[in-house]
C-alpha cells in the first residue's frame, strides 16, 4: 500500500431533495459512500486528518476527508447513516449561532444509524412558498444534542465554521431595497437583525472586508416607515406610495448614509465571529476544537491572526488544490456533485496526485 501524497478533501453542504448546485440527494450520497467503499477508499476521521495536516503523519493512499459546511439537520438524518453503513468518517462545520438550543435530539442516534428514525417535516425539502408567491429557504439546523451525539460517535466529528457566518455591507451604493422576495440563499445576512426597507447595499464576506455601517438615524426612520412584518412589508412594497415615501426618505440621507468601521470595531467584530464562535462551540461540545472552516473561504490577514490567537491550527477553504502532508494553513477542497456511480471515487483518486489536484483546480472542476 502506497503513502498518500495529497489528501482529497470533499466539500458538501446540503443532503436533501432540493435541486440545487450545492445539494446532493440522500440516494446519491449513499451511492457515493457505497462506491467509495467498494473501490477501497475510506473517509477518514478529523483526528487522522489533523495529524496528517499538522504533523505530516502518514495516511494510506486510499484516504479522503468528507466535510460538511453549516450544520444542517439533513446531515444527521441522511448523511450520517450512509457514512456509518459503509464505514466512513466525516467532519461537520456548523455555524455556532445556528445550532438550535434544544437539549434533546429529534431522534436517538442508534435509530438514525440503523435507518429507523422518522425524518422531521421540512428536512428533505426546506423550501416554502409564501402567500405572496415567493419561494424562501427555511433551513433546519442541527440542535446542540444532535451535534454532541454526532461528535461523540466519532463518525461525524464537529469543528468550527465561526459564530454567525455573517456578511458585511461594503459601501453606500444600492439599486433596490431589502424587501420580501424569493430567497434561495441560506447565508446572506449581516450580524444585525435585517430591516425591511434598508437600501440593498452590497454584502460581502465579513472576515475579508471592512464594514460600511449605516447611519443609525436613517435605520430608525426606515423602521418607522416600513412595517417589519414579512406580510405587511410585502404589501408596503406592492403599492406605489410606500416605495415613493421610502425613496424620498433615503434621498434626504444621500450624503450621510453611513461610515466605515474603525480598526477597533473591525477587530472586535471579527473576534466575535472567530473567538466567541470557538468558545460557544466548545461549550456545547465539552472539548476544544482546533480546526476552522472559513465562511465563504474568505479572510484577511488580521482575521487569520485572530484565529491563530484563538487557538485554531488547521484552516479549511473552499477552493480546490493539493493537500500535501504538513500543510494546515489552507486546506483545499473540491465540491461534491449530485452525480452517483463512480464520480466521487474517480475525483478522489485524481486528487491524490498533487499535480492533478492543482490542474483540476485551475480548470474549475
3D architecture notes:
- The protein folds into 2 domains: 9-160 and 312-363, TIM Barrel (Alpha-Beta Barrel), CATH 3.20.20; 167-263, no CATH class.
- It contains 12 helices and 16 strands.
- It has helices at residues 26-38, 46-55, 73-85, 109-114, 144-153, 216-225, 230-238, 241-251, 263-285, 301-310, 343-351, 354-363, and strands spanning 9-12, 14-15, 23-24, 42-43, 63-70, 90-94, 127-129, 135-137, 156-158, 167-169, 203-205, 212-214, 258-260, 291-293, 314-316, 334-335.
- Strand 4 (42-43), helix 2 and strand 5 (63-70) form a beta-alpha-beta unit.
- The longest helix has 23 residues, at 263-285.
- It is globular.
According to CATH, what is the class of the largest domain?
Alpha Beta
Rg from Cα: 22 Å
User: Any low-confidence stretches, pLDDT <50, length ≥5?
Assistant: none
CATH architect. name of the largest domain: Alpha-Beta Barrel
Number of strands: 16
What is the tally of helical segments?
A: 12
Using the coordinates shown, work out and report the CATH topology of the largest domain. TIM Barrel
Number of domains: 2
Q: Which structural class do you get from the secondary structure elements?
A: alpha/beta
| H-E string | EEEHEHEHEHEEHEEEEHHHEHEHEEHH
User: In percent, how much strand structure appears in the residues?
Assistant: 5-15%
Query: Span between N and C termini?
Result: 28 Å
Mean pLDDT comes to 96
Summarize the main sheet: 6 strands, parallel
Helix content: 25-40%
Amino acid at each position: 500500500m502506497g503513502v498518500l501524497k495529497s489528501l482529497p478533501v470533499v466539500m458538501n453542504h446540503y443532503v436533501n431533495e432540493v435541486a440545487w448546485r450545492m445539494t446532493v440527494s440522500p440516494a446519491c450520497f449513499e451511492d457515493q459512500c457505497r462506491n467509495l467503499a467498494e473501490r477501497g477508499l475510506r473517509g477518514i476521521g478529523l483526528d487522522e486528518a489533523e495529524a496528517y495536516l499538522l504533523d505530516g503523519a502518514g495516511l494510506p493512499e486510499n484516504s479522503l476527508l468528507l466535510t460538511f459546511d453549516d450544520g444542517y439537520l439533513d446531515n444527521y438524518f441522511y448523511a450520517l447513516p450512509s457514512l456509518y453503513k459503509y464505514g466512513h468518517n466525516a467532519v461537520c462545520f456548523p455555524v455556532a449561532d445556528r445550532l438550535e438550543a434544544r437539549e434533546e435530539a429529534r431522534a436517538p442516534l442508534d435509530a438514525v444509524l440503523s435507518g429507523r428514525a422518522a425524518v422531521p417535516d421540512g428536512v428533505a425539502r426546506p423550501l416554502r412558498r409564501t402567500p405572496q408567491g415567493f419561494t424562501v429557504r427555511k433551513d433546519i439546523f442541527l440542535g446542540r444534542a444532535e451535534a454532541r451525539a454526532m461528535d461523540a460517535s466519532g463518525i461525524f466529528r464537529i469543528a468550527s465554521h465561526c459564530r454567525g457566518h455573517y456578511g458585511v455591507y461594503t459601501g453606500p451604493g444600492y439599486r433596490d431595497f431589502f424587501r420580501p422576495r424569493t430567497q434561495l440563499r441560506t447565508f446572506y445576512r449581516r450580524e444585525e437583525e435585517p430591516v425591511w426597507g434598508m437600501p440593498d447595499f452590497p454584502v460581502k464576506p465579513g472576515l475579508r472586508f471592512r464594514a460600511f455601517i449605516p447611519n443609525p438615524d436613517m435605520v430608525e426612520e426606515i423602521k418607522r416607515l416600513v412595517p417589519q412584518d414579512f406580510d405587511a412589508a410585502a404589501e408596503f412594497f406592492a403599492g406605489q406610495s410606500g416605495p415613493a415615501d421610502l425613496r424620498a426618505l433615503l434621498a434626504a440621507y444621500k450624503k450621510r448614509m453611513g461610515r466605515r468601521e474603525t480598526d477597533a470595531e473591525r477587530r472586535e467584530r471579527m473576534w466575535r465571529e472567530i473567538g466567541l464562535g470557538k468558545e460557544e462551540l466548545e461549550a456545547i461540545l465539552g472539548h476544544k476544537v482546533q480546526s476552522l472552516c472559513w465562511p465563504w473561504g474568505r479572510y484577511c490577514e488580521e482575521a487569520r491572526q485572530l484565529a491563530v490567537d484563538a487557538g485554531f491550527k488547521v484552516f479549511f477553504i473552499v477552493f480546490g488544490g493539493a493537500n500535501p502532508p504538513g500543510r494546515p494553513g489552507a486546506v483545499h477542497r473540491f465540491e461534491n456533485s449530485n452525480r452517483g456511480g463512480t464520480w466521487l471515487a474517480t475525483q478522489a483518486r485524481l486528487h491524490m496526485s498533487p499535480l492533478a489536484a492543482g490542474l483540476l483546480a485551475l480548470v474549475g472542476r
